[in-house]
Design brief:
This protein is α+β, with helices and mostly antiparallel strands and about 475 residues long. The protein has 2 domains: about 210 residues, no CATH class; about 180 residues, Histidine kinase-like ATPase, C-terminal domain (Heat Shock Protein 90). The protein is built from 13 helices and 7 strands. A 5-stranded mixed sheet has the order 1-2-3-5-4. It has a two-stranded antiparallel sheet with strand order 6-7. It is rod-shaped. The two termini are about 80 Å apart. The relative contact order is 0.07.
Amino acid sequence: MIGWWVAPEYRRWQARSSHEKVEASTRWMLAAYAWLTVLGFVVQLVPNTDRGALADTLAWAVFGTGLVQCLVCTGVLHQALDTYLGTRTVAPRQLALPAALVGAMTALTLTLAALDAVEGGGLAVGLALHGTTAPFAVVFGVTVGRGRVAVALCGFLAVLLAGLAATGMPWSGVLAALVIACLGTVLSVFTARSSAWYIAVIRELEEARGVQARLAVTEERLRFSRDLHDVMGRNLSAIALKSELAAQLARRGGAEDASVEQMTEVQRIARESQSEVRAVVRGYRDVDLATELQGARGILRAAGVDCRADNGGSRLPVPVQAALGWVVREGATNVLRHADATWCTVWVGADSAGGTALLVMENDGVRAASGAGGRKGSGLEGLRERLDGVGGTLRVERDEERGTFRLTAEVPLGAEDARRAGRQRGADGAKSGDGVNGPDVAQRADGEDTPGGRDLEDGTGRSGAREPGTYGKDTAE
C-alpha cells in the first residue's frame, strides 16, 4: 500500500531538474523548521507545569494553539516565499490570523508564568516564547521588508518585556526569557530570509544558464553565417567569372580547349566549396594565410587584375595568420564585386617597432559610393569580429580622387612573437623579394608608385615594391 503511493511520487521527484529539487527541499525544510520549533519548545510546557488542572489546561491550550498556528503558517509559507521572489503577493489579511494566534499563545504563556506554574523559570518560559513566535516569524520575515520586520520585532519585545515584568518573575528570569525569545525570533527571521535568498540565487543561476545556452546558440549562428559568407563569397564570384569567360570563349568558336579548361576550374572550385561548407558546418575550418594569398592572386589575375602579394608575415603566430587570411579572402571578394580594378597589392608583415602584425590591401577602380538606400554588406563587419578575437583592428580608407581603396588590418603581437617578427622583418629587408610571388613583390602593373611606402627597385626597372613595415607610419585613421 505504501509502495503504491511512494513510487509515483518518487518518479515525479526524479523527473524534476536539479534547481527544482533544491528549491523544493529548501521550502519544505523551512516549513519543517517551524513545526520542529513548536514541537520541541512549546510542548515542554506540558510536563514542566504543576499538576493543577488550570495549569495543565493552559499548557495544552498553548500547545494546541501552536499546532493551529503551524498549519495556518504552512499554508501561507509558499505564497510568502513567492512574495520575496516577486512572483506572488500575500494579502495583509492572510497574516492577521497567525498574528492573533501568536498573541493568544504569548498571553497564555505569560499567564502560566504569572501563576508560577512553569518549572525552570525564565529559561523554560523563554523557550516556549521562541516556539510561539517561530512559525509566524518565518512567514512574516519573507513577506515584508527588513525595516518593517525590525520595527515589528522591537514592538513585540517591548510588549513582551512589559508582560514578563507584570508576571512578578524575578528580573533574572525576565531577562533570560526576553533574551531567549529575542534570539529565537531573530533566528527564525534570519533562517526564513536566508532560505528565500538562497532560492532566489538558485533561480538566477538557472536563468543565467538558460541565457548562456541561448547566447551559445546565437554565437554559433553568427559564426556559421560569417564563415559561410566569407567562404562562399569569393568562390561564387570566381565561379561566375570563370563561367562567363567560358561562355565568351565558346561563342567565339575555335577555343574549345580554353572553354573546357575554364569549366574544369569551375568544377574544381565548386568541389572545394562543398568541402569548405562541410568544414564550416562542423566548425573545424581553418585558414592558411599563404594559401589565401595565392588564391587571391590567382582569382584576381583571372579577372584581369594585376595582383601582387608579399607574404612578409609567414612567421607570424598561427592565430594571427588565420585572422589575416580571412582579411585577404574578404578583400579579394570586395575587389571582384565592388570595383573595376586593374591592379591590387597585398602586403603582410610587422610594423617598424615589431609589436604589431600588419596587412595592407589596396586596389584601384573604386566605384562611386552607393546612396543612402544602398544595401550595407556584412563582410567587413564579420572581419572586425574576427580581428576582435585576436585583439586586432580594421581600417577602411577610400580615396575618391585617385579611385583607390585601402584595407588595413592590425593585430598586436606578444613579446616572443614580436622578436620573431622583428627577425623576419630584418631578413625581408635584406632580401626584399622572398614572398609568395618571388621577384614581382607588391608591384603595380602600370609602374606608378603605390602609395604608403618607399619605392624599391625589383630588378625589372619598375618601381612600386613596398618596404616591409612602412605602412604603419603613413596610413591615416
